[in-house]
Design goal:
Elements: E1 8-13, H1 20-25, E2 30-34, H2 44-57, E3 67-71, H3 79-86, E4 93-96, H4 102-111, E5 118-122, H5 125-136, E6 142-145, H6 147-154, H7 161-176, E7 183-184, H8 192-205, E8 209-212, H9 217-225, H10 229-245, E9 255-257, E10 260-262, H11 264-282
Parallel strand pairs: 1-2, 1-8, 2-3, 3-4, 4-5, 5-6, 7-8
Antiparallel strand pairs: 9-10
Helix pairs in contact: 5-7, 8-9, 10-11
Length: about 280
């Protein structure tokens, strides 16, 4: 079983309970029941009840780590009711929309069960400015970029260098805080090839996962993450040689594979490639 952080996060509107089971049956690593943008204000109370009822009905059928709920931001009129819902749910992860303050994430953590994921969705200028403190806060397990909302907040187009700068900041602060590479935002088109292209761009920036809004997008993420066959072969040779050379020893030395030096960072890179290969092949 992969020990890597999840690569795919699939949203399903919280007011569409008839879609919950289909999303859960997909090969998404995380399924996010959405209480924020996908749900109109008048429908939020009904969505909370739908999420509560479904999650209790399927308790034990899904691993707690796989299900998540996206709640409304801390400054919204819906935050308190969303927190009240979290206190009644079985163990699940949470994504906080428009995260801007570490203190708000601590509040959310207080409403969650222990040993569950808490993702900070950064999608405003204030959130970008605060992301170093958000990433370093003990309550947070990963950052995600809400690029579409950030573009609206900053009044910039998708190809703006300011958006690239903001995305890069999430990558850097995540690494500095010891978090997994951040999660890239959604692709409006549900076509797998468009999602694949966006994921490839996100990978070049240093992102490690993607949010999806339709099951058809999951295949695009997998294709974007899949290493080339020659990369897989190289990684297998490196890992085999390294493990054989360091059997029973502290893995600190170096060796040669295919005439090139392999030290611990190269070994870790090979492990990462093999994990991506296994992920991309899992649903093939």
């Amino acid at each position: 079983m992969s020990m890597a952080a999840p690569y795919t996060y699939l949203f399903v509107p919280g007011n569409r309970p008839e879609r919950f089971a289909k999303a859960a049956a997909s090969d998404a690593e995380r399924v996010i029941l959405d209480l924020e943008d996908a749900v109109a204000p008048a429908d939020k109370a009904g969505a909370r009840k739908a999420i509560h009822d479904w999650m209790h009905a399927i308790a034990g059928q899904q691993t707690p780590q796989r299900l998540m709920v996206r709640i409304n931001d801390a400054r919204s009129d819906f935050f308190a009711d969303d927190l009240a819902l979290l206190r009644t749910l079985p163990a699940c992860g949470v994504m906080l929309a428009k995260a801007e303050r570490a203190a708000d994430l601590q509040t959310v953590r207080g409403a969650m069960q222990a040993d569950t994921e808490l993702l900070a969705l950064v999608e405003t200028a204030a959130g970008i400015a605060a992301c170093p403190s958000i990433a370093s806060h003990a309550s947070v397990t990963r950052l995600a970029l809400g690029a579409l909302d950030l573009m609206v907040d900053l009044n910039i187009p998708a190809d703006s260098p300011t958006l690239t700068l903001a995305a890069s900041q999430l990558v850097l602060v995540s690494r500095a805080a010891g978090l997994a590479a951040p999660v890239a935002g959604v692709t409006p088109s549900v076509l797998a090839e468009h999602t694949q292209a966006d994921m490839q761009d996100a990978l070049r920036l240093g992102f490690g996962a993607k949010m999806c809004i339709h099951p058809t997008q999951l295949a695009g993420v997998r294709r974007a993450l899949a290493p080339l066959p020659e990369e897989v072969q190289w990684a297998q040779e490196v890992v085999t040689a390294w493990d054989a050379a360091h059997a029973g020893l502290a893995p600190t030395g170096a060796l040669q594979v295919q005439g090139k030096m392999v030290d611990r960072p190269v070994y870790l890179r090979a492990l990462r490639l093999l994990d991506l290969h296994h992920f991309s092949q899992a649903a093939a």
